[in-house]
Specification:
The complex is a heterodimer of chains A (about 750) and B (about 130).
Chain A lengths: L7 H4 L3 H13 L8 H4 L9 H9 L3 H25 L3 H4 L3 E7 L4 E4 L5 H5 L2 H11 L12 E4 L11 E10 L2 E11 L28 E5 L2 E2 L1 H8 L5 H29 L1 H24 L4 E11 L4 E13 L2 E5 L16 H16 L14 E3 L18 H19 L21 E5 L5 E5 L33 H7 L2 E9 L15 E7 L5 E6 L22 E5 L3 H7 L8 H7 L6 E5 L2 E6 L5 E5 L14 H9 L5 H8 L12 H18 L1 E2 H8 L10 E5 L2 E7 L5 E3 L11 H15 L9
Parallel strand pairs in A: 9-22, 10-11
Antiparallel strand pairs in A: 1-2, 1-5, 3-4, 3-6, 4-5, 6-7, 8-9, 9-10, 12-13, 12-16, 14-15, 15-20, 16-19, 17-18, 17-20, 22-23, 23-24
Helix pairs in contact in A: 4-11, 5-10, 5-11, 9-10, 10-11, 12-13
Chain B lengths: L1 E3 L4 E4 L4 E4 L5 E4 L9 E5 L1 H4 L21 E6 L6 E7 L9 E3 L1 H9 L23
Antiparallel strand pairs in B: 1-2, 2-3, 3-4, 5-6, 6-7
The complex binds zinc ion (ZN).
Amino acid sequence: MSETNVSTAAKTPSAEEIALIKKFLNDTTLFLGPDPEIMRRHDLMPRSEAEEAAMQVVNDVHVTAKIRDRVQAGCDEGFEMVEAMGAAPGAKWGDVITGVYTASGDLAIASAGGVLIFSTLVHHPIKFIIKNWMNDPTVGVREGDGFIHNDSRYGNVHNTDQSMILPIFWDGKLVCWVASTVHEGENGAIEPGGMPSMAETSFDEGLKMSPFRVVENYQIKRDVLTFLQNSVREPKLQFEDMKVKLYACLRIKQRVEETLRTDGPQALISTLRLTMENVRAEVVRRIREWPDMTVRTYIIQDSTLRENCVVKINCQLTKTGDRLIFDFRGSSPEFTNRATNTVLAGLKGMIAQMFLCYVWPDLPRGQAAFAPIEVVTDPNSIVDCSYDAPNSQSLMSIFTGFTAAQHAVAKFLYSCPEKYTKVHAPTFNMINTFIWGGVSQHGETLGNLCADLNGMGHGARSDSDGEPALAPIFATMADIGEQELNEEEVPFLQLVSKKMTKDAIAPGKYRGGQGYTMMVATKDSEQWGFMTVCQGAKIPPMQGLFGGYSCGAYPLCKVKGVDVYDVLLDEPHKFKHSIAEIMNEQPFEGASYTTHHMGMGFEISKRGEMFMISQGAGAGYGDLLEREPRAVIKDIEEGLISEGVAEKLYKVKFDHATLAINQDATRELRDKERKDRVRRGVPYAQFVETWNTPKPPAHLQYFGCWGDDVGTLYVGSPEITREADKPKPNYMRHPKDVRIDELEARLAELGALGDEKK
Amino acid sequence: MKVLMTEYLRIDLEKETWECRVCNHEIGPAKRNYKEGMLVHDRDPREIHPPIIDPEKYRFTFSPDPEWVRILEYYCPKCGTQVETEYAIPGHPPLYDMEVDLAALREQWSGREEVLEPVRGPEVVLGAGHGGH
Ligand SMILES: [Zn+2]
């Protein structure tokens, strides 16, 4: 701008002209895309006049506590309705939430169960509706309206989650909003199930619902519904769950109206505002108690779900006084044609629910708990992606971002005299489950997933082991479902289900909670397939805590060229119940046995072919030599670890027949190992001289900063860098093209390409 | 006064040093990275996360790939306690993971009683949730 040769005085418009320009721009906006003013803000809206007035009149804590409990009970009732009636598998297992939002759109109170991140991300679409539709004569917001939304660029985690949003009026005035969100699954994307890993542009991701009205006079509009049904693989699911969410919202509305009748609108408005402001103030107080410190960590994604590569999630967490700042600069740039990017709001929502589920679970669940916390990112990075970047697999980046935050926060919490939960190592963070789709045994077209994604192993605590297969990181209260119920609807069986995967461990003084094996095979359909969407087959997606170890790696195993149902019928003794036995013993003659990374694009399966994976273990805590020998033996008895691995790692001496511990020999072994450590350990200064390299290794396709220089990002090679604040596209080649090039190079070397024309 | 910073580390506010909580070894100045006073071992991840399926037959085995990631183990040089681990990309400089503002820490603890045993935090027990029902 400084290069202009026109005098600036001549160019400065008057206030009147500015107003005119603003009006002109507003009146002629071509397209109301996601609004950065809404999408980048997570703090509470300023107090409105109505809120100020209400707080003057009603501020007695007994009154507000009573109303808060009633609204909370209403949210919980709505939650239970969706869980009981919802058609989506996710709904049945608690991948659902309900909440009440202030008239300005802030989430004030959410249901006690369910996936909190959903509702911390629904304030964005509500604020969009307030800003754009409320006063638009062609839209408007009226009593009896309901709005639908799923596009994560306008709020939300990913497009498979759909929200129903209802305004609540009293005496003709908008007093609050209620909303319900469900992980629906199917949404018409390029692959079934709603979370395509093959999406290379946002247009491969299915329905792109910016917030719009779909309910009038409390009735779903049939024309709009038909359009939505026509756009997805599961028209029945689309209709059923829109109804279920609408009726759950109406129930919460009923409960809210009961308090409005008994206590008046000002009591409700004041309660919602005070709840948020009190939580915000309490969070600031709690942060102040942390030590002033900077903690650094990073988590590695080892794939884009299409190819293996090294993608860094860099996190520096600084606490100064009552400020807490998450700095994710230096993380990988976004992938222009891969789906693992997340919008910034998704990352923030995930960290918000980390605090509410794992650090301060005693606080009312809402938006306020994260309001005072700050987040810094590079533009167009994998944790703050642009409008154009696909993000249907944003889970990969919000989960690894969550883990970076969880790992960093634990190091602040240890010294605090007052704690609200136990300090613990990171929780397993990948959705190791099967996504499925096709035509069922009943002739229905389906696309969804197994609830085993909810069976993540939990991190070890400072005084106890992690719980195996406990809950997903995004909801501490969700179920892993009944496989038998699922099998009534889908044409495949889980031949092995919920059996702990032996030796897939995260060792420590307290070990991480372990994950279980899943083996699936299609049975009654010729049009049925699976996909898996996880990272971590080469590099663990977590860090251990205070000397504990992370989990190991988790691959996908396939057995093809066999009908395992025939085997079970004719030669049942050949069937084995662990991945280790099947892959190592290869009991089915003529079958092929292969291993893969966990980003399997949708693959049609044949009857009786097996796909096998394991859920993951949460991270371990503390030095494994301090683990009680009895606890090690218990793990052997429970089938979590084999005798050899237990002996080798934990240095426990025991009788293999009776499992009786030889305490003296164990002590000796452990003392010796400590001495061996001192012998083999290299002094730090000397170690870094040989270990540190100025650039990432040439054999890895590496994305992100290297070391402390967060301003320089490596983009797939130690020779290609860019400045972190100057975004550019980052295209990946098709994995098949890469493979064809490799094979052609080999042919050329052998002189076998002949005179093929180019 | 001493502040318990991790399972194995504490800071002596007067001496401004990191100390090992297991053997009382003085690790180094609290104004610097405690790792500078540690011994480091570059661990092949397959030793901790053993292959579950045969590495002779398969590309992916449940073990992390040792060419893609290493485990840096940090030991107390006196007692050999494993104070910290770091899953690191080969060659990536170790992180300065806990950079403490010592003056602020001293100020904060000037108003607190010394804590000798770590505070573990509340148990999750039935009936202790919201509203107590
Ligand atoms: Zn020591």
